[in-house]
Automatic annotation (TrEMBL), chain A:
Lineage: Bacteria, Bacillati, Actinomycetota, Actinomycetes, Micrococcales
Pfam families referenced in this protein's UniProt entry, alphabetically: SBP_bac_8
Region forming the signal peptide: 1-27
A single cellular component GO annotation: outer membrane-bounded periplasmic space
GO molecular function: thiamine binding; thiamine pyrophosphate binding
Protein name: Extracellular solute-binding protein
Species of origin: Cryobacterium fucosi
PANTHER family membership: ABC TRANSPORTER SUBSTRATE-BINDING PROTEIN, THIAMINE-BINDING PERIPLASMIC PROTEIN-RELATED
Keywords: Signal
Length: 355, 581
């Protein structure tokens, strides 16, 4: 082998190893874990519509340097569980109680009692162990546009939608069961039918409800907002979290009516917790004390039309939000059963009942 | 070319080193993490359960979706080849007026895809699309839902996946020896029979490679069926996505993915077999650049022109619409009534008004560029060794390198996070979870099979005589590779790099689990700004990002192909001179 070939071979080897291992050498300095000072990494699914920027700016005013990592609910929960042996984030907020129950059972969050614990209804969070604490409450509501549907035509019970042939195909059903809202709809549908002897803890009558709900509905169209479908008369009814109503009425010139069933609607509570194993425990606790306080939650509510759990903060919430929430009774849902079973329910629905 | 003796393989230090590095890579990043994940999914309590199989078989919906995915893949393997070969012939083989413009129109699928592409076609032909509306003005009895289901999905995906044909078949076509065609003509062969008996057979290795890719795209179809499939034609990918995100159902996701993956591997094995038989090569020994052919039959000529221009319009309209829509309010787009008052710059203001909007672009450009350069650089050596030395070890390596095709990106990403969350001896005792490197590794991994397939096909089409000549003249294997082979496959390698770069640019599936909090990539940023309960303008924002991505991707393609056909021609000529020497 001549000299030139040897050099070339060496170069190739260098290139090859460099190519394949350089990956690991670029890392070192950028590693986020391991040091106890520095930027606090805040995981949330509640960063859209400028919320992330708002929290970052307000935290900076309060002397805290944070970096928001915003991901969708299911993705975020999966990421935290996957990282639990070497956590990247320090605090997580915005996920609903169902996701937090999962994080707790995976030991991915650790208990901490915030300064404002006395201002919130403990039963809205983790009353038993105090692993996570409630921030914001949301109702999952069935809506319609009062411009096209008069209040008298609207059903009084959500179940009328699939039991009365008049509504056949006129209500939207969201089939992306990986997302939080469709899961809550499912939980709400099944909640009255809990039956220890039934399949997955639900009686046959309950599964019949789920089957009929999806069978008579019009599946959501990927990339098309519910309100766009309402305004072009594709459907008359659909489900969304209560906080989305105000901005849509403004954009689509609709006037939203809400179906308020006697048994209530599902409510979810967004929570906050320290991620287990963070090196920045002190900073994380400081952030929680600050973010959940009556002042900050009140300002947040006024800015983003949320309904805070913190009773002192409610005075600052928008009046129309308070009025809507107070007009909607809470549905009785067994959350511990729901958390335990929801992934099986989703699986069964996905395999058997989706259109 | 096919040297299966072990001795010759180990005689060359180059081969030995490439093999060792590949073995390490495969073991560390492909086999170990995924085996970990699959074992914990399928054997949760240490023993195999048939739960997943039972569940799937008893679900009518799962079986239907699975069947739809296979039907779609099989259909696409035919339709994409028909359309793809047609557009390659129209732009590169036949003399067609305005071929350059046609090429640009057909090339639009290079710079956009996914939900935006499906939505674009839906806005034109869908229930509220303007073509549907216009036609219904004349013929009110036409079903407004005509463009949905199997038919619509096949049409849209056929048009969207001709990208590979354009790039790779195009460059293979350029390598055909024109003298063979001239000789055939002198012997009285017709245009049709030259095409059928000489041109297409010479393109076979590349046609096989892109057919495998097309089949795979069909199996994994996600957004087109979601947007256009309606309730009658849903595929399996959305179900895999939902299941892989839930710990309890991950075994179902993995099983479904493995079924799809095995189908791909079977197809791959069949193609490898045909490729091995290798009797059909009619590649130039002395390559004379191809000259464009006139279609002698007047009627046929007119028909081909018409078809080419109709296709051009079909290809180009959605892109123009997306640019237009990026200047419109969401409500106007979605409700389908557009007036002059709806035009606005607000969408661009929203995107550029976000603090640090450029940062995700920079992060993604750096990641994508690094990953695509690394993967093409590495696979250049690997595919060379795999193609040159065929023995059980290299065959096994080749199949193992296709693992990323079998598993969905989400599972690969999760497996990486969970495997490298503790010091791992395979990577020098480092913890990779939470570092910037893990996403780069994931990007390299997911691009390995695509790159390997096409590079192997490119190597296969290089005439053996060139290598023999080099060896006889005393060139070593590295020298031959560097000076003789690489220049010949450079156009293909450049095209793969560009395609990898473009497809990684707005990746979400891998990034979501792996990105470092301080370096947010574009896909995550787009998702963040388009999702959210109050974000009613999401569709418009998506269009703005798509337009910005189109600009970057268009620029990438310009760097590779741009400066016109002139550079390609120059390259061809250079390839010719190398051969003559």
């Amino acid at each position: 082998m001549n000299k030139r070939t040897l050099t070339a071979t060496l170069a190739a080897v260098l290139l090859g190893t460099l190519a394949l291992t350089s990956c690991s050498s670029t890392a070192g300095e950028a590693s986020s874990s391991g040091d106890s000072s520095g930027t606090l990494i805040v995981y949330t699914n509640s960063n859209s519509d400028g919320r992330g920027e708002w929290v970052t700016a307000k935290a900076a005013e309060a002397g805290m340097k944070i970096e928001i990592v915003g991901l969708g609910g299911a993705d975020l929960a999966n990421r935290i569980v996957a990282e639990k042996n070497n956590p990247v984030g320090d605090v997580v907020f915005g996920l609903n109680n169902m996701f937090f129950e999962t994080l707790k059972s995976e030991d991915a969050v650790s208990a901490y009692t915030p300064e404002w614990s006395g201002d919130v209804d403990k039963s809205a969070g983790d009353a038993k162990d105090g692993a996570f604490w409630p921030l914001v409450e949301q109702a999952i509501v069935t809506v319609y546009d009062t411009n096209t549907v008069t209040g008298a035509d609207a059903p009084t019970q959500v179940s009328d939608l699939w039991e009365d042939a008049a509504y056949d195909g006129r209500y939207e059903v969201n089939t992306s069961l990986g997302q939080a809202t469709p899961q809550l709809v499912l939980a709400g549908l099944l909640a009255p039918y809990a039956d220890k002897k039934g399949d997955l803890g639900i009686s046959d009558a309950g599964w019949k409800q789920v089957q009929d709900y999806y069978k008579h509905g019009s599946p959501a169209v990927e990339g098309t907002d519910l309100y766009a479908r309402l305004t072009r008369d594709e459907v008359d009814y659909g489900v969304l979290p209560s906080s989305g109503i105000t901005s849509r009425d403004a954009e689509y010139a609709t006037k939203t009516g809400v179906i308020s069933p006697k048994d209530g609607v599902p409510y979810v509570t967004e929570q906050i917790a320290v991620i287990n194993g963070t090196p920045r425990q002190g900073q994380a606790e400081k952030f929680i004390d600050w973010f959940g306080s009556a002042d900050v939650q009140g300002e947040f509510a006024a800015e983003f039309a949320s309904f805070p759990v913190n009773e002192k903060a409610r005075a600052q919430a928008l009046p129309e939000v308070v009025a809507l929430i107070e007009s909607l009774p809470k549905q009785d849902i067994d959350w511990s059963l729901t958390r335990e079973r929801i992934s099986e329910w989703v699986e069964k629905t996905e395999l058997e009942y989706l259109p | 070319m096919r040297n299966s003796s072990w001795a010759s393989m180990f005689r060359s230090p180059f081969v030995v080193i490439v093999s060792l590095v590949t073995l390490w890579f495969v073991a560390t990043f492909l086999v170990f993490p995924n085996a970990n994940l699959l074992i914990s999914t399928f054997l949760p309590q240490g023993q195999f359960s048939f739960r997943a199989i039972d569940k799937l078989v008893s679900s009518e919906r799962a079986m239907n979706s699975l069947w739809h995915s296979f039907a779609l893949a099989a259909t696409l393997a035919v339709t994409v080849n028909v359309v793809g070969i047609f557009i390659v012939l129209v732009t590169d083989y036949f003399k067609i007026r305005g071929a350059r413009m046609l090429w640009l129109g057909y090339a639009t699928t290079l710079i956009y895809g996914g939900i935006v592409l499906a939505a674009g076609y839906n806005f034109i032909y869908g229930r509220y699309g303007f073509v549907t509306n216009a036609v219904r003005n004349w013929f009110p009895e036409i079903d407004p839902n005509w463009f949905s289901g199997y038919f619509a999905v096949v049409v849209v995906m056929t048009l969207a996946t001709t990208t590979n044909h354009m790039l790779f078949l195009g460059s293979s076509l350029a390598k055909i020896d024109y003298q063979t065609i001239e000789a055939a003509r002198n012997m009285g062969a017709s245009t049709m029979s030259i095409l059928w008996r000489i041109v297409l057979p010479a393109l076979r290795p590349m046609i096989f490679a892109v057919t495998v890719l097309t089949f795979l795209t069909g199996l994994g179809a996600l957004t087109a069926p979601l947007v256009l499939g309606g309730t009658d034609f849903q595929t399996i990918a959305p179900m895999i996505l939902t299941f892989s995100k839930s710990t309890g159902s991950r075994d179902l996701a993995a099983l479904l993915a493995v079924i799809l993956g095995l189908a791909t591997i079977v197809l791959l094995a069949m193609m490898n077999r045909v490729e091995k038989s290798g009797v059909y090569f009619s590649v130039a020994k002395v390559a004379t650049p191809l000259q464009k052919q006139r279609i002698p039959n007047r009627f046929a000529n007119a028909a081909v022109h018409v078809a080419a221009y109709v296709l051009f319009v079909v290809y180009a309209t959605p892109v123009l619409l997306i640019v237009l829509f990026s200047f419109l309010q969401s409500s106007a787009i979605l409700t389908g009534s557009i007036t002059w008052g709806d035009f606005t710059l607000d969408n661009y203001a929203t995107v550029f008004g976000t603090p640090a909007v450029l940062r995700p672009f920079v992060v993604s450009v750096v990641y994508s560029a690094l990953a695509s350069a690394i993967v093409v650089g590495g696979m250049l050596f690997v595919s060379r060794v795999l193609q040159k030395h065929r023995n059980p070890v290299t065959t096994m390596l080749e199949y193992l390198l296709h693992i990323p095709w079998i598993l969905p990106t989400i599972l690969i990403a999760l497996a990486l996070v969970m495997t490298f969350d503790r010091p791992n001896a395979m990577v020098g005792g480092q913890v990779l979870t939470g570092t910037t490197s893990l996403l780069l590794i994931a990007y390299v991994i997911v691009k390995v099979p695509f790159t390997l397939r096409l590079l192997k096909a490119a190597f296969a089409s290089v005439p053996e005589s060139l290598e023999d000549a080099a060896r006889i003249l005393g060139a070593g294997s590295m020298f031959t590779l560097r000076k003789v082979l690489v220049p010949l496959i450079l156009p293909t390698a450049a095209a793969i790099t560009a395609l990898n770069f473009n497809s990684l640019l707005d990746d979400y599936d891998a990034a979501v689990f792996l990105y470092h909090p301080l370096y947010q990539p574009l896909g995550v940023a787009i998702k963040a700004s388009t999702e959210g309960e109050n974000n009613v303008d999401s569709m418009s924002i998506t269009f703005v990002y798509t337009v910005l991505l189109m600009i970057i991707m268009g620029f990438t393609m310009y760097l590779v192909y741009g400066r016109g056909g002139s550079s390609t021609r120059r390259r061809k000529r250079r390839a010719g001179t190398v051969t003559v020497k």
